[in-house]
Amino acid sequence: MRTETKLSRLDRVFARLDREPERPAHIDVPRMSRHRVVLFSATLAFYGAIVWAVVISSWLVRLDWQVMFFRPYQQWPQVHAFLDYYVVLGQRGPTAVMVAAWLGWRSWRQHTLRPLLSLGTALLLLNATVGAAKYGMGRLGPHYATVIGSNELWQGGDIFPSGHTANAVVTWGILAYLASTPRARRWLSALSAVISLGVGLTTVYLGTHWLSDVFLGWAAGLLVLLALPWFEPLIARAEVGVFALRDRLRSRRAATAPVAVPVGAPATVVPPRVAGAMDQESPSQKPAAAARTSRSHGYLTPGPYTPRSERTPLTPVGSRRPPHTERVPRGAASARPVAGG
Prior knowledge:
The chain is about 60% helix and about 0% strand. The chain is built from 13 helices and no strands. α5 packs across α9, α6 (about 90-110) packs antiparallel against α7 and α8 packs parallel to α10 (about 210-225).
C-alpha cells in the first residue's frame, strides 16, 4: 500500500515559490542612486517648507481659508456622488487589500516574497512618519476650525498631512516601484500620479482637508517611496528568514512524522491505555515489575499428580466438626473382625 504525504495550503504555496532556485533575471532591485538621493533631498526640503509656511501662518494658510470659503462641493454638486466613491481609492483598508492581492499573485508567479514584503515595509514607514506628523502637529480640519485665518495647529486634530493623499501615493506608487520593465514603470508611475492627485483634490472638494494638507500628503508619500531602496537589504534578509523558518518547521514535522510500515510486515499494536501507562512508568518501577513477573506462584507450580483417594483430608481451621480418627480411607481393606467367624 503506497501512502502519500498530504501537503497543507501553506506548503503548496512555498513549494510553488521554490520551483525556481533563483529570482528571475529580469527583476531588478532599485538602488539608492545619486538621482534618487537628489529627488529625496528636494522632496524633504519641500516637506519642510510646507510645514514652516503653515506654522508661521503665511500666504499658504490664507489660501487654505479662501478655498474653504469657496466651498467647492457647493459649486459643483453634480460630481459629489462620484467623488464620494472616488476618495475610497485613498483609504488604507480597501486599497491595501486590492494591491496586496495583486502583489500576492506577483509573488506566486515570480517565486519571491519581495513584492509583499516591500508593500508591508512601505505601509509601516507610512504609518510611522505620517502618524507621527499628524499627532505631533494636531491640526484641526476645515469643518472644525475655530478662528478664521489661524493655522489651527496643536488643537488636538489629526489631518496634517492628509492621510488619504499619502496613502494613495504609496499604495499605488508601489506598483510602479516593483514594475519589471521600464515601460511598465513609466505607465504605472503616471497612473499612480493621476490617482493620488485626484484623491488629494477630492478631499479638498469634500471639505475634509486644507489644501496645504494635500501638499504635505503628496510629499510624505513620495518620501516613503524614494526611501524604499535603503530598506532593500532588510527586505532580502526578511525573505531569507521566512524561508529558513519554513525549512525548520518542515524538518521538525518530518522528524515527528510516523514511519510507514510496508504491506505484509507484522505490526505490534499497543492499546492507547497500555502505551500511555508504559510511557509514564518510571525506570525504577520497570525492574520491580519484571521481578514480580518472573516469580512464580506456589499454587501454580507443577508437581506429581496424587489421586484423590490418597490425599489426606484436611480439616479447616475453626471447623466445628471433630476429627474422626477411626475413619478409614476409601479403597483400603477393612480391619474389623467378621462377627460369628
